[in-house]
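> example.struct
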């Protein structure tokens, strides 16, 4: 069983992709709203590692991975890490709340960016995209495509990162 399914990209701050380089710049200013319409930014989560997942209800791989992200938040979530599932659905909470209810997602809060500004600001080019953001608001790793978030290896890799800052466990699996 592999850690990841689908297409993904892992990058550290000093590596470059074909489309852009990830700079060691703060993502703290990324702004969006919560389910009540309150404006917030990633700065609200500084001091904790943030797993920012950009997704939409109309994206089939996003729909598949959301329950696993919920289980990851239940398993690993603490005062050290926050899973932020950021929907880009244009109808916002009107689309997300029924989906969370239908799929029994209970541990994730609803965050919304119907304007899709975060996609441009963070260089998100595909869905789902998940950014591992350090306690200081710096992008550490990026996955483009669905991830099997609730596999024991994934949770253990995230725990190791929380304890040591070690990202080597996020290396892509070897092809058969």
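> example.seq
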């Amino acid at each position: 069983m592999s850690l990841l399914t689908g297409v993904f990209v892992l990058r550290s701050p000093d590596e470059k992709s074909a489309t852009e380089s990830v700079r060691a710049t703060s993502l703290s200013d990324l702004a969006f709203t919560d389910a009540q319409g309150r404006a917030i930014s990633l700065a609200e989560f500084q001091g904790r590692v943030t797993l920012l997942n950009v997704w939409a209800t109309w994206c089939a791989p996003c729909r598949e991975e959301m329950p696993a992200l919920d289980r990851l938040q239940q398993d690993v979530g603490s005062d050290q890490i926050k899973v932020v599932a950021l929907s880009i659905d244009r109808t916002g909470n009107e689309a997300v709340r029924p989906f969370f209810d239908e799929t029994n997602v209970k541990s994730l809060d609803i965050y919304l960016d119907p304007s899709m500004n975060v996609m441009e600001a963070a260089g998100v080019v595909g869905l789902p995209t998940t950014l591992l953001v350090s306690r200081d608001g710096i992008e550490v790793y990026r996955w483009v495509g669905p991830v099997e978030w609730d596999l024991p290896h994934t949770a253990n890799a995230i725990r190791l990162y929380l304890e040591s800052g070690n990202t080597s466990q996020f290396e892509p699996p070897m092809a058969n």
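> remarks
Residues 54 and 86 are 5 Å apart (CA to CA).
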